[in-house]
């Protein structure tokens, strides 16, 4: 979204002031220090080749580097997402902050927020990116920010401990260096991907592990290096994709394909469907065998799967069957009603499990921020909590309010 109605305006100062106003209106900026940082940092100097109206657009990223297939490896993150994460971070003057994933501009915001007594270190795995960030930081007047070329998986131990570690690439796990690298009251803000969706989570230390203070839907380029995501994906006929990052979930393309050929079972919950991102988090963390089902527009138009699959939808899979959420208009539930479509020999059982969760969420947890997430570093707790998300270095669990 353009921050200003007049598309002929090219003056960065005017566009920046409009961006700050719009970020306040859209709940990206909630505090005066973050507003001041966004009003001060000359954002366009961190993307000198990009059109200035794109740089100051609230929701657009600026490409920095792609791989040979055109996949984004580095972008300047959108202003709205940066503001949300900096608000989650609760940065205060004098703090020492580590940013994992560089570009320059977010490190400059951090430098404004920590002030002269504070310290900002930014690390990137890519030499081109870190060299570019260094040049931009110098040109924009932030020589005090330290730039480091390394895989952020190991943190930057020589400047630890940090009051804040803010990660700006989609992480699949939380390596020990990030937890050990925090002060006892330190905060980690990390876009954590679980079952194909990413949420920026603000974690505080909690004993040996972490406990969440807030979370918000986010999109990021993937983490590279040691911490790259471990996901499996199978393609079914017609372009239906099923993916999972849970090693315990069986993904048998042939069996799931056969399931797609069986008549579908529809079950309706009788409950309202709304707040899709909150419902999705609940489903992802409570389905006993979670996956994610995707399909492109033409696949949906051919009627192979429901439109809920367009942006990816939580799916429950067994060895030869699967179920996923759908919705229909229903004035009685206030707009839409949630339901389930299931295919395969286990369709009945999967639909039962799924619809039970839809009802439980609607009755008990249908509100913003209903989850508290915890990260428990290895060794895994015994007995394991219900439906844990098992990662290489630890376990994610959730409690619901
Ligand atoms: C979205 S960009 C960062 C945006 C930046 N923070 C800004 O100011 O707009 C994500 C960056 O993470 C980097 N990255 C990916 N994996 C990494 C890793 N393991 N360690 C450090 N950096 C990594 C990428 O090279 C990319 O430059």
Fill in the keyword field for this structure:
401 residues; binds S-adenosylmethionine; alpha+beta; 10-stranded mixed sheet; Rossmann fold; 2 domains; 7-stranded antiparallel sheet; 11 helices; globular
Question: How is the secondary structure organized here?
Answer:
Elements: H1 12-25, H2 32-40, H3 52-55, E1 62-66, E2 72-76, H4 79-89, E3 96-100, H5 105-114, E4 119-124, H6 127-140, E5 146-149, E6 162-167, H7 176-180, E7 182-194, E8 197-206, E9 209-218, E10 232-235, E11 241-244, H8 253-261, E12 265-272, H9 276-286, E13 290-294, H10 297-301, E14 313-317, E15 322-330, E16 335-343, H11 347-365, E17 371-377, E18 389-390, E19 394-400
Parallel strand pairs: 3-4, 3-6, 4-5, 6-7
Antiparallel strand pairs: 1-2, 7-8, 8-9, 9-17, 10-11, 11-13, 12-16, 13-14, 14-15, 15-16, 17-19, 18-19
Bound molecules: S-adenosylmethionine (SAM).
Q: Can I get a quick summary?
A:
The chain is of the alpha+beta class and 401 residues long. The chain is built from eleven helices and 19 strands. The chain folds into two domains: 216 residues, Vaccinia Virus protein VP39 (Rossmann fold, 3-Layer(aba) Sandwich); 134 residues.
Q: How would a crystallographer describe the biggest sheet?
A: 10 strands, mixed
CATH homologous superfamily designation of the largest domain: Vaccinia Virus protein VP39
Ligands in the structure?
Answer: S-adenosylmethionine
CATH class of the largest domain: Alpha Beta
Please state roughly what percent of the residues sit in beta strands, choosing from under 5%, 5-15%, 15-25%, 25-35%, 35-45% or over 45%. Answer: 25-35%
Backbone shape: globular
Number of DSSP strand runs = 19
What is the helical fraction, as a range of percent? 25-40%
* Run of helices and strands: HHHEEHEHEHEEHEEEEEHEHEHEEEHEEE
Q: Give the termini distance in whole angstroms.
A: 34 Å
The neighbouring-strand order within the major sheet is 5-4-3-6-7-8-9-17-19-18
């Amino acid at each position: 979204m353009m921050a200003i109605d007049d598309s002929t305006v090219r003056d960065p100062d005017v566009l920046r002031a409009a961006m700050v106003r719009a970020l306040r209106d859209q709940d990206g900026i909630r505090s005066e220090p973050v507003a001041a940082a966004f009003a001060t940092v000359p954002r366009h100097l961190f993307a000198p080749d990009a059109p200035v109206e794109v740089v100051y657009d609230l929701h657009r990223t600026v490409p920095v580097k792609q791989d040979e297939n055109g996949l984004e490896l580095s972008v300047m993150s959108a202003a709205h997402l940066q503001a949300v994460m900096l608000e989650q971070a609760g940065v205060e003057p004098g703090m020492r902050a580590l940013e994992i994933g560089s570009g320059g501009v977010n490190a400059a915001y951090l430098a404004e927020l920590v002030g002269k007594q504070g310290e900002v270190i930014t690390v990137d795995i890519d030499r081109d990116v870190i060299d570019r960030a260094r040049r931009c930081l110098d040109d924009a007047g932030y020589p005090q920010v330290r730039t480091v070329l390394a895989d952020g998986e190991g943190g930057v131990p020589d400047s630890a401990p940090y009051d804040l570690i803010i990660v700006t690439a989609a992480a699949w796990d939380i390596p020990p260096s990030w937890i050990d690298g925090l002060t006892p009251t330190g905060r980690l803000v990390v876009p954590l991907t679980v079952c194909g969706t990413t949420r920026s989570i603000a974690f505080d230390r909690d004993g040996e592990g972490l406990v969440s203070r807030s979370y918000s839907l986010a999109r990021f380029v993937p983490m590279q290096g040691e911490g790259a995501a471990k996901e499996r994906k199978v393609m079914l006929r017609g372009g239906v994709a099923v993916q999972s990052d849970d090693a315990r979930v069986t993904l048998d393309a042939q069996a799931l394909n056969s399931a797609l050929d069986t008549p579908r079972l529809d079950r309706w919950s009788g409950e309202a469907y709304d707040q899709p991102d909150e419902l999705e988090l609940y489903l992802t963390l409570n389905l006993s065998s979670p996956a994610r089902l995707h399909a492109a527009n033409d696949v949906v138009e051919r009627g192979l799967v429901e439109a809920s699959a367009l942006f990816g939808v939580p799916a429950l899979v067994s060895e030869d069957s699967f179920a996923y959420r759908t919705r229909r208009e229903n004035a009685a539930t206030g707009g839409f009603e949630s339901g389930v479509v299931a295919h395969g020999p286990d369709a009945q059982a999967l639909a039962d499990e799924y619809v039970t969760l839809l009802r439980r969420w609607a009755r008990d947890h249908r509100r913003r921020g209903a989850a508290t997430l915890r990260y428990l570093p290895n060794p895994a707790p015994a007995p394991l909590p219900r439906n844990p998300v098992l990662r290489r270095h630890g376990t994610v669990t959730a409690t619901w309010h």
